[in-house]
Amino acid sequence: MDLTSSGDVTKLLEYLDNCRGLISTVDHAEIPIDHQIHTLKVDLRFFRTYFKWWDSNWTDGKDIRDYVQNAASELHSLCLEPATDGSMTRDLGLFVSNMIEKMKDYKKTRDSKDGIQNDKLTSLLTRIKSVILRAVYLSYFCFVHRIDEIVYLNSYLVWMIKHIEPEVKEICVGFLKDSESSQSDTLPEDLRTVVSIDSLFDNLMQLLNCNSSFIIPLKDKIAILHQDLRFMRALLMDPPPRKHDEDEEDKLEKFIEDLINDTKSIIPSFYADEMKEETTNEMNLVLSSFLDKFKLIKSQVRDNYIEVPRKSQFMFFGTDELPFIDSVLKNLDELLNFSADSIVSLKHQVETVHGELVVLKLLLKDILENCNKHELADLMEHVIDVTHEAEHVINSYVVGYVPSWYQMLKISDLLEEFNLVKTELAEILNNKRCDNTVHNIQKTTPLVLSQAHTVTTEEVVVGFEDQAEKIIEQLTRASRQLDIVSIVGMPGLGKTTLARKVYNDPLVSNHFYVRAWCCVSQAYQKRGLLLDILSQVVEVTDRMHKMSEEDLADKLYKGLKGRKYLIFMDDIWNIDVWDDLRRYFPNDHNGSRIVSTSRIHEVALQAKSHSSPHLLRLFSEEESWKLLQEKLFQKESCPMELVEVGKQIAKNCKGLPLSVVLIAGILARMDKKIDRWKHVAANLSTFRVSDSKQCHDILELSYKNLPDHLRPCFLYFGAFAEDREVPVRKLLLLWVAEGFIQKSEMMGPEDVAEDYLMDLVGRSLVMVTKTRSKGGVKTCRVHDLLHDLCLAKAKEEKFLQRINGHNELYAPYLGGSDDNVSYHSFYSSAPEQPRLCIHSMRKDFAEWKPYHKHVRSLLFFATAGEHFATMLDPYNFSFIFYSLKLLKVLDISCVSMRTFPSEIELLVYLRYLAFRGEMNSIPSSIVNLTNLETLFVKGVRGEVVLPDTIWEMVNLRHVLIEDRASIRLLIKRNRQILQMHNLTTLGTPSVFNDEDTEVIIRGFPNLRKFKCIFMESWDSISNCNQFPALDFLDKLESLKISYYGKVRNPSKFMFPSNLKKLTLTKFRLPWNEISQIGRLPNLEVLKLLFKSFERKRWDMKDEEFLNLKYLKFDNLDIAQWNASSDHFPYLERLVLLRCKQLEELPSCLGDVPTLQVIEMQWCSPSSAESARQIQENQKDMGNEDLKVLIKTC
User: Fold this and answer.
1) Which DSSP state fits 926?
2) Bridge partners of 966?
3) Which residues pair with 990 in a beta bridge?
4) Is the pLDDT of residue 1004 over 90?
5) Which is nearest to 22 in space by CA: 145, 164, 170?
6) What is the 3-state composition of the chain as percent helix, strand, coil, each rounded to the nearest 5?
7) Per DSSP, which regions of 681-789 are E strands?
8) What is the enclosing helix (H) or strand (E) of 565?
9) How far apart are CA 852 and CA 841, in angstroms?
10) Which of 189, 745, 753, 945 is the most buried (most CB within 10 A)?
11) Strands (E), 700-795
């Protein structure tokens, strides 16, 4: 049946020409829709040709022809007379629904028949449906002028159609091979050529397996010919988009066709009975001629369709060369074990690249052991570039971003690059051109620090004594009117440091009834600021988080009313902030104060305070030298030989405290030798730190002195909002997933990452803002100027792109015209900026259509401005999974999805996944994410059921499900219990005391952190509430348990002896049950939260809590606490929250020599007074170190 004259597909093609005319009349010339329509027409012409030459012997051919005719006719009729009242959308929807139903009905009738052709037909039907569906979408957007959506369709639609066609062609080729030879003259040219190539493959393989003495000399060239034919077949099956110069491309196609025919004609010569040496020589020349012609074809394809990466296009940090190659080798090993069909045709090339990298690694190892690496910087950079480009091409092919011919050609080119690099490396070794003197080069291997990091949030404060005294007097002794005290100074002068010094001064803390500290920053967010202040004034409940801004403001006003308060507002950039918040701070004429810091003098003047702003001065030379010594030597003295040059360094900092701190960070990592310090002093003498450049030169110096492995970790702070505290656990897991962390045989990647962070803290580039109960860092941040440096360097070095707000998110893609970019854009090299972080409103992000398809990391941060009611609205993010298939890191946890997206399985390279949504289960297809290491899921509707396939995800290290998870026991057919040996963090499964629960937990033998919900499990035999045994988890260090159920006593625990941190909630246990916990020999942190223990009296027993360092009570009804001086011999910090019935603290706590802090919030006045008395007693005995922090109810 010839559709050329009467087929409805032809009508549809004519309609698409009308669409092109319609689009041309719209004033959106930059929209590349013309090429899109052209591509769709190519696909539809293929179908028309396919039906035209359908094998007439297959009787079912008429059914499929009729089906496509009817579908095309309906679409044609629908689109020729579009309605203007919105009914077109409805009609299109009905059309698509009817078409899908027809597909289902037709498939049912075919299911009763068998044979290979039936499978091929079903596959073909699916492809046809997809193409026509895309035609429907295209038609709709053309007619309603949704030009913004068309931009997205240009990448998505073309990608879908282009990757449908090769599969359809494979089906078609299969039919053509089975068709009768009499029809061969009427077959489409490109498919006839493919069939010819397939017939050559068998012949060539026979020759390669032949051991004839005349064939053996030709085998190398025959093997190359075989590879070239594979390339030509791939090119014909999935050709690149056609350019406007179609004559040249037609010539190339004709050249390929003739070359294949010539190749086919000479193959029989190899099978001649009388092969002679002369014949072999002659055939060698013929093969050489053919291979030269194939090279010419590949050269033309390369010139037209392969983008040449610019030198230094890729910026790689986080590893030296050997660890980077190790990482790529590991990824290739995993790829070779991957079972996907897309790997089969790629396996040989992956193995080849893997072998080249192994050899390259050995050569590099020899060179780096004997050579000055810095003299080989260009060569090392080239090694990294080529290695990464090879990995990128392979990954892009696996996810379908590039056709097979592209990866063949590109990998072939890269293998040549590998050979050139190996030759150059071998030459360096042979000629011994390396200078084996590296003693002056600072090592870039990470510092090996203690895993038990002890940190503090307190900064070294030097200077400002006179100004601090004036501010304290103004806060405590001046007018009873509400007043604003402003601290003004240039960036890096120490405004926040001075403010903190004043805020924590005992004269200030004891003078005010309520104190609160908040950071405003340039990106002012009213709602977040109100919640921040409110949380320090009253007890914040879940209900408050759902309040509107006005309700929060009213709550704040009432919380401050009648109370003497002190509010510190750090880093104000605009007077509008103060004008916006002023009315929420009541003036009760009780001496309340507000302190602000700003770098802008006008902001302070416009605040209309009763006093002049405090203008910070620069440091004197003496103050600078004193600060430098404090940062470098703490309480020790500076060696005499360094004093003179040290004073010169301090002087060259020109009185800017931040410069002193940063220089101290550089010196701290150097040998304390006079020549090294003189070198720093000489460099500083050329800097102009106090001019308009501020301390830019010092910042640059600090960055340049960072070792390679720390640079990406530092730049990553640019992804987060300025002045915001960064959760450290999340940060470290992101660093691991990004590949910044070097492998260590002695430590886990998270521990190494923590060492990296502490190194940055030691260099004064990162500030600790909150500490953990065990002494580690809980949150951190970087100074504003350092944050600016992170963003500038991240952009300069193509490390990260940050998008802020609607305007940047929807900025037009400046990629050039369709004529210039459309061809290379399909087959581009690795991304210039592989990481994308977006700060915008949720609804803007949900409507965003990405064009960055090669992005490796996507982080989304929701900004303020949305009403709370809309914050929980679910969104559809399927565009991420179709458009960004190379993602390794995906964090969209601050925006909700309706269900767990099944399309997530497309992101096969994902290592870190964090999201939230209304889902109550996770699909089993998540097992396809074989590289996933970290999984965070926030289920907003309660329990989330994990699939059985979770047990097969052997690379998972951290699984956190909130608010609770359900895990089923999975036993293989051979009764083997599966185990997840790499899992170190798990939260929050519901557990019972039964055999299955214990078996499940035994499946995680290497857990270090475990958070769970204990469901009531009464053991009638032992007559107790039996908690599942955990004593076999010999690596478990941190355990958090919440109890759900009736109050049942007693309870029996079996905790591992190595447990260091324990948190209990809602158990309602009597105090005599605590001895089970007190006898744990390694317990350092104990948190007893909301009704974990009940009863009014706790009488402590001897020989318990012998190593406890941190004790926290929160919302307990304890009234009497009796202890002796022998209890808690190593206690360092005591925290009491909402213990309103506690009468007093045990006085013997003052005798604990290690006690540093007693913190009390919303406790009874009598207990607060007892804490103050303990502090006074300690002062009388000469101990000035005990701090007592009290916020009463």
Assistant:
1) G
2) 945
3) 1013
4) yes
5) 145
6) 50, 15, 35
7) 726-727, 767-771, 777-781
8) strand 565-570
9) 20
10) 753
11) 726-727, 767-771, 777-781
992 or 956: which leads in pLDDT: 956
The single-letter DSSP state of residue 25 is T
Nearest C-alpha neighbor of 904 from the set 889, 931, 919, 925: 925
Beta-strand relationship, 835-840 and 777-781: unpaired
Q: Which two tokens stand for residue 570?
A: 């750090």
What's the CA gap between 486 and 606, in Å, rounded? Answer: 11
Q: Any idea what DSSP says for residue 181?
A: G
How does DSSP classify residue 1039?
E
Residue 1095 clears pLDDT 50, i.e. is over it: yes
Q: What token pair was written down for 212?
A: 């004839």
CA distance 1121 to 1146: 6
CA angle (95, 99, 100) in 5-degree steps: 120
Tokens of 523: 């990106």
Distance of CA 135 to the CA centre of its chain: 35
What is d(CA 666, CA 631) in angstroms, rounded to the nearest whole number? 11
How far CA 514 is from CA of 273, 510, 551, 1046, in Å, comes to 103, 10, 20, 38
Could you tell me the two tokens for 353?
A: 């690249």
User: Which of the residue ranges 89-93, 286-290, 302-306 would you say has the lowest mean pLDDT?
Assistant: 89-93
Give all strands (DSSP E) within 697-789, no chain letters.
726-727, 767-771, 777-781
From the CA atom positions of the chain, what is the Rg in Å?
A: 36
Report pLDDT digits (tens) over 2-34: 333 334 444 444 444 444 444 444 343 333 444
Long-range pairs for 216-224 at CB < 8 Å and ≥24 separation?
217/280, 217/284, 218/270, 218/280, 218/283, 218/284, 218/287, 221/284, 221/287, 221/288, 221/291, 222/287, 224/291
> Residue type for 366, please?
D
428 CA to centre of own chain: 39
What pairing do the DSSP bridges indicate for beta strands 985-991 and 777-781?
Answer: unpaired
| Mean pLDDT value of segment 56-83 | 46
Please report which helix (H) or strand (E) contains residue 722, including its range: none
CA dist 710 and 1041 (Å) reads 36
The CA distance from 323 to 331, in Å, is 12
